Amino acid sequence: MADAALAIASAPDKPVQPDELPLLEAVGVTKLYGHFVANDSIDLEIWPAEVHALLGENGAGKSTLVKMIYGLLQRSAGEFRWQGEPIELPGPAAARAHGIGMVFQHFSLFEQLTVAENVALGLDNVPLAGLDERVAEVSRNYGLPLDPKREVWRLSVGERQRIEIVRCLLQDPKLLILDEPTSVLTPQEAEQLFRTLRVLRKEGRAILYISHKLEEVRALCDTATILRGGKVIATCDPRAETAQSLASMMVGGEVGAVRSDGQKKLGNPRLVVRNLNVTPDDPHGVKLDGITFELAAGEILGLAGVAGNGQDELFAALSGEVLADNADVIRIDNRDAGRMSITERRRLGAAFVPEERLGHATAPRFKLSDNVLITGHAASPMVRRGFINRAQARAFVDRITKAYDVRKAKRDPEAASLSGGNLQKFVVGREILREPRLLIVSQPTWGVDAGAAAAIRQAIIDLAARGAAVLVMSQDLDELYEIADRLVVICAGRLSAPRQTRRADRGEIGMLMAGVGMKGAGHAARA
Amino acid sequence: MEFVEAVLLTVITASTPLLLAASGELVVERAGVLNLGVEGMMIVGGACGFAGAYLTGSIAIGALCGILAGAALSAVFAAVTLGLAANQVASGLALTILGVGLSGLIGAGYVGQKIDGAGHLYIPYVTDIPLIGKVIFGENAFVYFSIALLIGIWYFLYRTRAGLILRAVGDNHASAHALGYPVLRIRMLAVLFGGACAGLGGAYLPLAYTPFWVSGMTAGRGWIALALVVFASWLPFRLMVGAYLFGGITILQLHAQATGLGIPSQLMSSLPYLATILVLVAISWVRGRRGSPAPASLGLAFVPDR
User: Is the ipTM of this complex over 0.85?
Assistant: First the structure.
């Protein structure tokens, strides 16, 4: 290992050797979860001294693929080849033995241990003695300053990521996998990371770079493989592509069936948001910056955006999980609602469907009849003078079941026992059947099969037709094109100007999602 | 002079079972498993230890029986909480109830029987040094073993790779799994080790402390051992200090009663627990934003995805 550290120390002088064989090759790699195909016959070649981007939306199968490469998941079919030879990767230790290192998206660090101890845990058979010095040396050589004796809980996010990278580098890897490394970094920290990665490439190491930030990929990567729905859609040179063309490959180029019904008659503004600024408590959160929009009765507004650009924060501010600084920045039906609690907002006729079905929208171990009370307690006959009317609650569950075809084993099971799609139908149905005048729904058809998704979309359209105002946050652009009257895009906590869906160009929306052409943007996508 | 020596001797003999059992539990909890069944494993270890020593006439074989019995009982706990991911608190409490019942059954035929207790070290002249001679050089083998065990545990946890991995598993089992460490196997070994230590601590009572068997002999020492681990904030040497402190309080309370101090004995016996609460408050006061010193994954079930 001392030799390896030395090799790293002197590595920048090492000549880059031409190779005839790809370093790592995936041939028809498939991963099944039951009937769900997470990876569908993936073919991929990674060459030495190449920065290879793996692009795709959330749920496209990127993480599943790299977990198989790192030995954390086992493939259902296909094969991996390392320098031409078929290999088995039964566990991370086997992957590391071949020279594969991985920097995780959610750090695999141990808070109460020191930097050096954390590094030691990622290395196989390394003596603890003298490790402090080697960690300090490697971190210096690559411009990743770290104090080996500090405990992790004292460190910033950027420093934590450096630990992971140093840990990988001490193993002298041939292939380094980075799973959305900049999603948690400040722009300055990201710059520093890119410099380090370019040095690594110069040393002949291959880097598999997972991201959905297009400008970043165009600036850094030599090759890009684009995944959508678990399939390889294309392999290309990102520098020869535009952010627009990459975006359309990522989100699906085919233009969905645009709603053909004529001009709708819209009512008065039901939700008015004026200059909403929210600074998140969570240091990894996105700051909302001057969010302004109006939502009229009868209208469906689609909010597009790549995950983690402020959708969660906006949802929390609109639902009342996080209060705005001033009451008048959020107005519901002409009432200042910015400082109102969730329950008060529900009493104004608002309803909310958060993205996370289990744990946010429902209590997993509660029965469905208890889960209808979670949102229905404020304004319904299910609760009278503090007493619960169980018969009413169960009857409401039955109504949802009937209206939305919720499949379940018994009349009133625990929420956690429902399949994802059925639980989503239950959650959406629970809110829509209360006939809200304002519905805010995040990822309405996430992980739901096509039939159920169509039913949910129809229910949203029907609700708007009855005069409700609906805000749909979704990463599925096809879905937004199908149901929304107008589109806005959120990127890095800022909102674009709204566009009529029928006139909105898909490529342009993709660019806005990547932060290109956003007013005051540019910092988010600079690389 | 002789009184002080007598107090010191009794403090050490009273503290040793606590130290043995708590040392094992410290390793278990460092691996992220909360085994509340220490009392049950101790008492089964005591009954089996006495039976083994009575039948063979050997204290060593008795101690071995205690170790194996404690480990066997902890294997049940490991199977339920690690294999089936059952709730650790409930399983641990059930283990104690099971152990107390089992010990009554095993020990039924031995109640009132006597054996020759464990012998004491005697080095001519050295052991005869006044005051400290008998305290340091005149103890039984269990006492020396318990101290060696604790030093060994410290060395293991902080100076070996395996110990580092064990601490990592207790701190964040998901990360440990992501790095390829066998979380459940490491935890199982830790639980078995904890069971063996508890069994030995229990066996100490009828083999060395009072050389006969009565049912319910552990009398809550398993619970004190659990409190000790928290008191020590999961640090080995603080555990040793705590064990002798708790043992000392127990003994002082007996002496205090003998001298006729007007303090109710119930209040005195509750002192170890009061001390634990006070120490916990003090720790969270000092640590501030660092939060609890407990292993972060303590008591959480781990189910690896496939």
Answer: no
